[in-house]
Amino acid sequence: MIYPPALEALMAALRCLPGVGQKTAQRMAFQLLQRERDGARQLARSLDQALDELGHCRDCRMFSQGDLCPICASDKRDDALLCVVESPADVAALESHTDYRGRYFVLLGRLSPLDGIGPEELGLARLAERMADAAVQEVIVATNPTVEGEATAHYIAELARAAGIAVTRIAHGVPVGGELEYVDGGTLAHALSGRRQVE
Amino acid sequence: MIYPPALEALMAALRCLPGVGQKTAQRMAFQLLQRERDGARQLARSLDQALDELGHCRDCRMFSQGDLCPICASDKRDDALLCVVESPADVAALESHTDYRGRYFVLLGRLSPLDGIGPEELGLARLAERMADAAVQEVIVATNPTVEGEATAHYIAELARAAGIAVTRIAHGVPVGGELEYVDGGTLAHALSGRRQVE
Ligand SMILES: [Zn+2]
Ligand SMILES: [Zn+2]
């Protein structure tokens, strides 16, 4: 052990971050201690505050500092539309880049039996309750076009049909501006099987 | 602002880490809050502890929890040899991979006038004091073979000569096991200009 215990402990703790191995943790620790001491102190405070104050919205499971997130608390959103996504980042992306103004439900994952992630972990009972609201007319399934995302979409579609609500799936295909030869195989297969009549 | 303030603050704080932009900070924050809550709490504690308890060794400027680091405090090291490196990581690398058992001096950087890093920032006055110790017989300059590292090496060599001590520079060239065609140009130029007579 070349480094003092407090430095070894910091490098070990940094490895809980995604994609951070031993070399990166070392580089991070040096930068924090040598050039970012204020930032490091702020990071410690922010971690504690986020752990203490952040929970999930009662209605949509988005990260929330209160019982309800701002979107669920708003009376300006369209109750007829309920968009189901895998991650809080998906909500952020849809809010930033589209004019969608319905409601959301965040799964915080996707069905993955091998990882022990089933309907309970994704809060699907709460989603079924949301669907039981008479105002909801369309469930938009926006899970990712992976094997697990598709299985999850299928499960949610069944829930919606059981509740007598229309279900739609966002379109997947070649990105706008993308070139066929650079698109991955799965996307290309999706784009082909999802082809539409030219009008 | 889609995310609650405590989450925005955490994502902003994570960006003080080297190489962490907005997307990575978001992914890190989600992982910490959803799957690494214990790790996140530990990281906050480790940051505070490292900031509170770590300083630099009085003699060599290595990170140290006490006045002297274990290497400087040891009476098992060879006082005749003083190896000058840029970073604490260099000490760790030399200790792990070589049988060097002399002393060290850590610059915590390299001369870089444009960034305001001069002799004072590198503790070169303290290094000159170390060289004044009658026990020191050889200064081994192990700064990196970059333009700034070479300028730093040159400066240190002058200090050593002024103190009447032998100066050596670690060898730079094609890595053992490396192939010429994959070696970067600077290394190759170093290897060629540093060629030795075959005996
Ligand atoms: Zn909500
Ligand atoms: Zn020391």
Automatic annotation (TrEMBL), chains A, B:
Gene Ontology molecular function: DNA binding; zinc ion binding
Pfam families given in the database record: RecR_C, RecR_HhH, RecR_ZnF, Toprim_4
General function of this protein: May play a role in DNA repair. It seems to be involved in an RecBC-independent recombinational process of DNA repair. It may act with RecF and RecO.
Stored SMART domains: TOPRIM (SM00493)
Domain Toprim residue range list: 80-175
Domain of life: Bacteria
Family recorded in the similarity comment: Belongs to the RecR family.
Residue intervals of every C4-type zinc finger in the record: 57-72
CDD domains hit by this protein: TOPRIM_recR
Protein name: Recombination protein RecR
GO BP terms: DNA recombination; DNA repair
Record keywords: DNA damage, DNA recombination, DNA repair, Metal-binding, Zinc, Zinc-finger
PANTHER family referenced in this protein's UniProt entry, alphabetically: RECOMBINATION PROTEIN RECR
